TrEMBL record:
Name this protein carries in UniProt: LysR family transcriptional regulator ArgP
High-level lineage: Bacteria, Pseudomonadati, Pseudomonadota, Gammaproteobacteria, Pseudomonadales
Species the sequence originates in: Pseudomonas typographi
Domain HTH lysR-type: 2-58
Family that this chain belongs to: Belongs to the LysR transcriptional regulatory family.
InterPro entries: ArgP, LTTR, LysR_HTH_N, LysR_subst-bd, WH-like_DNA-bd_sf, WH_DNA-bd_sf
């Protein structure tokens, strides 16, 4: 049987970024919080925290945090049905994994109003689509946005729509690297922009054009920085159409091969038994995503990629 005072101490340390702040939030002394963490670790038989600045949960610590979160959501439902159990109106906290391009474009506009109305705080973990599902499978997050349709056990998958990526670069970049016009051979030699080791969007795009692999590339682990690098003429890359719309309209960025784009489907994965708040967020998100994203395309124009950028 779990001792939820100990689990609350763990959640407090992680959510507030340290023992001292957790103590203030919980109305305890710092020593008391530390003792509760030590007692929890003694009962489990392994560490639940990495003592760093700020502290980070271990693998088992993340599982416990996820359990605490799910219990809080269910308790919120019960309190709504039986008000005399408590009148705690503190904001709820939800852990969600999503890719950086969604965070940089449509996500904030889709959830901002909901968070304010329902007193919801989000712990956003920026992950590639594979890691996002692994986090759900390990019980570390309540939901995730990814490009994989199949849900993990105990979760549901809902289609959100698709993000359109266009291969973009500056005119000077194209004049330098493709003076005779676009060709797969020229593309193979031109520096590409890659988000990180798990970003295969450019690789798959090039493979569809007959280029075996990306050999010359910059690594840029920032969605905003990725576009700025393209704007500066450092390389070409597949950038979300909604993110680059202004620069495309102004002629700052142009398409390498007009009409050839990649539409990446997105899915919302969430617990089946996550409580009314998570259900309400899901309904809200599906409505908002229908306006922010494009409908999945049946007939694809140019190389199409079912693999989401690895962030």
């Amino acid at each position: 049987m779990f001792d939820y005072k100990l689990l609350s101490a763990l959640a407090g340390v992680i959510e507030h970024g340290g023992f001292e702040r957790a103590a203030v939030a919980l109305g305890l002394s710092q020593s008391a919080v530390s003792q509760r963490i030590k007692l929890l670790e003694a009962r489990i038989g392994q560490p639940v925290l990495v003592r760093a600045a700020p502290p980070a949960p271990t693998e088992v610590g993340r599982r416990l945090l996820n359990h605490v979160q799910q219990v809080r959501l269910l308790e919120r439902d019960v309190q709504g049905q039986v008000p005399t159990l408590g009148d705690d109106k503190q904001p709820e906290r939800l852990r969600v994994a999503l890719n950086a391009d969604s965070l940089a474009t449509w996500w904030a506009g889709a959830v901002g109003g909901f968070c304010s109305e329902h007193q919801l705080l989000l712990d956003l973990l920026v992950e590639d689509q594979d890691v996002g599902l692994k986090r759900m499978r390990a019980g570390e997050v309540a939901a995730c946005v990814c490009a994989t349709e199949r849900p993990v056990a105990g979760a549901r998958s809902e289609p959100l729509g698709a993000m359109r990526y266009r291969p973009l670069a500056t005119k000077p970049f194209l004049e330098r690297w493709m003076p005779g016009g676009f060709s797969p051979q020229a593309l193979a030699k031109a520096p590409a922009l890659v988000f990180g080791p798990d970003d295969f969007l450019q690789h798959r795009y090039m493979a569809a054009l007959g280029v075996s692999q990306v050999q010359v590339f910059h690594l840029c682990p920032s969605s905003e920085g990725f576009m700025r690098m393209a704007e500066a003429g450092a390389g070409w890359g597949l950038i979300p159409e909604m993110q680059a719309a202004r620069l495309i309209a102004e002629g700052v960025l142009v398409e390498l091969l007009p009409g050839y784009h990649s539409d990446v489907p997105l899915y919302w994965h969430h617990w089946r038994n996550g409580g009314q708040l998570l259900d309400a967020l899901t309904r809200h998100l599906l409505r908002e995503a229908a306006h922010a994203l494009i409908a999945p395309v049946g007939v694809r124009s140019g190389p199409h990629n079912e693999q989401q950028r690895g962030v």
